[in-house]
Amino acid sequence: MARPDTFWLTLTNIVLGILVVLSFLAIALETLCEALSNLRKRRAFDAELKHDMEEMFATGRGRAVLHEYPSGSVHKLLETVCRFWRRLSRR
């Protein structure tokens, strides 16, 4: 165990280390959620553009689905985590 005269120094180092790790996790989560949001916007834009082009030039392929997202479990998990993060950070 640590000597009594260095107890507070050790405790301070542990607390600061935990705060640094939590800060990095928050930054990584915010970056991930922002990238996921941008991907969602880009896919919606591409689907809308495709739909408009099909209507304009009458390709006969039918109507495009405007908001087509992957339905994988990892994607659903990321959406859930980002939704929770937005509620937590009040965005």
**Structural shape:** rod-shaped
Order of helices and strands: HH
Sheet of most strands:
none
Total strand segments: 0
What separation lies between the terminal Cα atoms? 44 Å
Topology:
Layout: H1 7-57, H2 73-89
Structure in words:
The protein has one domain. Helices cover 75% and strands 0% of the residues. Helix 1 packs across helix 2. By secondary structure, it is mainly alpha-helical. The model has no long low-confidence stretch (mean pLDDT 82). The two termini are 44 Å apart.
Which characteristics define this entry?
0% strand, mainly alpha
Quick summary:
The chain is mainly α. The protein has two helices and no strands.
